[in-house]
């Protein structure tokens, strides 16, 4: 599975460690930056290209990290076809995919520790959308807003 990752300065350190972790687990990574720590950089500059890559199917799923994970999720959800959420717990990490077809996991680099982040992204990446009728129905209502 090819995974896109992105972070601003608030998430840079966690992104780097998650990138190493995912590579060690055999995932192919496409990194959308930042490529160095710059306290003046802006999360939309990295998260929007990642969000577009998900929509264009250049990557299957994404992980975006900013300081809190809030800005990353706000901007990513402006891109039609992206279903992003700030995730802080294991249940939501997989249930978000199973029920809501979550395709972009957002994390707070200043909130979530490295080991917890690893568990969250593993739960996210291993989960599959169930395709259950009630979930499809709900997603259609979400998609209708994107037109
Ligand atoms: C950057 O200082 C910080 O505001 C940003 O990383 C993020 O937390 C926004 O939601």
Automatic annotation (TrEMBL):
Pfam families per the UniProt record, alphabetical: LacAB_rpiB
Entry-linked Gene3D superfamilies: Sugar-phosphate isomerase, RpiB/LacA/LacB (3.40.1400.10)
Keyword entries, A-Z: Isomerase
UniProt KW Isomerase keyword: yes
MF GO annotations: ribose-5-phosphate isomerase activity
Annotated signal sequence range: none
GO terms of biological process kind: D-allose catabolic process; pentose-phosphate shunt, non-oxidative branch
Record has Isomerase as a keyword: yes
Family of the protein in this entry: Belongs to the LacAB/RpiB family.
Protein name as annotated: RpiB/LacA/LacB family sugar-phosphate isomerase
The organism's taxonomic lineage, starting at the top: Bacteria, Pseudomonadati, Bacteroidota, Cytophagia, Cytophagales
């Amino acid at each position: 599975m090819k995974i896109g990752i992105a972070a601003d300065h608030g998430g840079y350190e966690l992104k780097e460690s998650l990138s190493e972790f995912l590579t060690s687990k055999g995932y192919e990574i496409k990194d959308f930056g930042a490529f160095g720590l710059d306290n003046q950089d802006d999360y939309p500059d990295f998260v929007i290209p990642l969000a577009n890559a998900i929509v264009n199917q250049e990557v299957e799923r994404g992980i975006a990290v900013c300081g809190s994970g809030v800005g990353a999720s706000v901007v990513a959800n402006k891109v039609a076809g992206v279903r992003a959420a700030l995730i802080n717990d294991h249940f939501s990490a997989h249930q978000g995919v199973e029920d809501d077809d979550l395709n972009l996991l957002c994390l707070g680099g200043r909130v979530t520790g490295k080991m917890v982040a690893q568990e969250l992204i593993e739960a996210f990446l291993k989960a599959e959308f169930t395709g259950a009728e009630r979930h499809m129905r709900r997603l259609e209502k979400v998609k209708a807003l994107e037109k």
